[in-house]
Amino acid sequence: MASSATCIFCKIVKGEIPCLKLVETEKTLAFLDIQPLSRGHALVIPKHHGEKLTDIPDDSLTELLPIAKKLAIASGAVDYNILQNNGKLAHQEVGHVHVHMIPKPNEKEGLGVGWPQQPTDFEGLKKLQAEFKEKL
């Protein structure tokens, strides 16, 4: 399993740095975020190191969402965000793939999201669809 000597999440996986562990399997670790946006904010990480989702083998990704779902249920949150960022511009702070489960109990706590929608351009979208299909 790939790991990085300088990655804080790899150090947590190895037990070199403590965490408030919630779930651990052979491939995955979930723990409470120590700088939470709300009560119950937790992280789910693959034990395989990779900075972005595309760097992680598919078989190391299979448990991320099922565990995030279990955390959401266990938190008792009615509203919550499941978030996974890739790269600094996309607000990724730690260079190891991780999924946030962030309860949203009210307007002040939890994740605040802006959604700068662009005007609909169906011709442009059809071209983009063709580009995707060609690469998939």
Instruction: Please give the count of helices.
Output: 3
Mean pLDDT: 96
What is the percent of helical residues? 10-25%
Number of strands: 5
Write a compact overview of the structure shown.
The chain has 136 residues and is of the alpha+beta class.
Notes on the protein architecture:
The protein is α+β, with helices and mostly antiparallel strands. The protein is built from three helices and five strands. The chain has helices spanning 8-14, 64-75, 122-135, and strands spanning 21-24, 28-32, 42-46, 80-83, 99-103. A five-stranded antiparallel β-sheet has the order 1-2-3-5-4, with helices on one face. The longest helix is centred in the C-terminal third of the chain and has 14 residues, at 122-135.
Write the layout of secondary structure elements.
Elements: H1 8-14, E1 21-24, E2 28-32, E3 42-46, H2 64-75, E4 80-83, E5 99-103, H3 122-135
Antiparallel strand pairs: 1-2, 2-3, 3-5, 4-5
